[in-house]
């Protein structure tokens, strides 16, 4: 936690936030917080700033007088993801929030394991704390990535993608077996700064050729990270890292 | 497992490998292996090639006639890492092997939690299978990353680094708070192809200025991934992804 984020309803009219969960424990045990100490704070989906500890109760509740005036960094990429195993997904979610993903669209590609869709991870009560952890790690953003589930991949790509992503967004599909296809010229680094980006990352077994063709018909260009076959979470972080704008 | 790797002593003089562990289960359950099926295989620290399943015993033992003639991809980067929490370290290790790390030097930076050094993860019997899993994921390399532990950071950097890394290797230190210091010009992408690389990634709390100065005195240039503060594993994967040669 490099910045403590509070939910709007945790901050009272006087601008005092009160927590007694993992954030309170972090403030006391890791940051060695005492009354008067100033922390980096912010409001979930709101502004960032600082907060001064005004009280630490014997039951562990920490009170922080906050002053939030700074605009957070905005998300810069939407991620279309064929969900990996829940275990992999769970460790990927906070990293996506840290790295600046705005929307995560989980799609039913052919090689997605069917039993994934029943995972508890798809419940907002489960994934939201993971995403907020990622925002608190990154320390410069506050907007919780939105998660959409679209099990019919073809319908999503053909009928919904353009309206959702904006017609002007650049589109890249990760495809480890790209050698047979048209390989996109390597764009300059940090090119995410040029405008919104949509990145599509397939399942562990890869996209089918039909799926890649469907994306290519919608303007996606293939992108490979070389001959190594990367796990979904590695590949996603690696591609986001290569595309992230310098800010 | 995109390639099954066998230890040299698992392959008999006739070139038949026999396994009954997670690899056997993967061959049967995930690859739907049957007698006659050809798999991508290889030898740990040796050549790569293919193997044909010759028997699947009722006790789960799988026998594979292997033919290994292809050179694996060589590692391209040594990583100096201030170890993160064992939980983070455990999920990072396979990814390092996948991404082509040759040597992993775990160093005692000031902000490394002291209790890490007792972690069972530092035992070869624990970390080696994780590294081999990463090689089997990547499917193009077979050399198990070597792990060195150097708790005295200053002594390692001043007295041992040059001999270990080679004087000509390019040297980059990840430093999220680089704005105050001399920021390295962004090298072209895939520049790892220009020669060996040494990358230094600090602890969760960051390098101290003294530690960065020590590295800079040895020719390391600072590299930041922008304003977001990344977890150690995210930062390491992100930096490796930005530096990996195209092969």
Describe the protein.
- 2 copies of one chain form a homodimer.
- The longest helix of chain A has 15 residues, at 124-138.
- The first copy, chain A, has 2 domains: 4-70, Hypothetical PUA domain-like, domain 1 (Ribosomal Protein L25, Chain P, Beta Barrel), CATH 2.40.240.20; 77-243, SPOUT methyltransferase, trefoil knot domain (Alpha/beta knot).
- In chain A, helix 2 crosses helix 3 and helix 2 (86-99) packs parallel to helix 6.
- The first copy, chain A, is elongated and about 60 Å long.
- Chain A has 247 residues and is of the alpha/beta class.
- In chain A, strands 8-7-6-10-9-11 form a 6-stranded parallel sheet, with helices on both faces. Chain A has a 5-stranded mixed sheet with strand order 1-3-4-5-2.
- Chain A has helices spanning 22-30, 86-99, 124-138, 153-165, 209-217, 232-243, and strands at residues 4-6, 16-19, 38-43, 48-56, 62-70, 77-81, 101-107, 146-150, 170-174, 197-201, 221-223.
- In chain A, strand 4 and strand 5 form a beta hairpin.
- The first copy, chain A, starts with a strand and ends with a helix.
- The A-B interface holds A 2, 73, 91, 94-95, 98-100, 137-141, 186, 189-190, 225-231, 234, 237-242, 244-247 and B 2, 73, 91, 94-95, 98-100, 137-141, 186, 189-190, 225-231, 234, 237-242, 244-247.
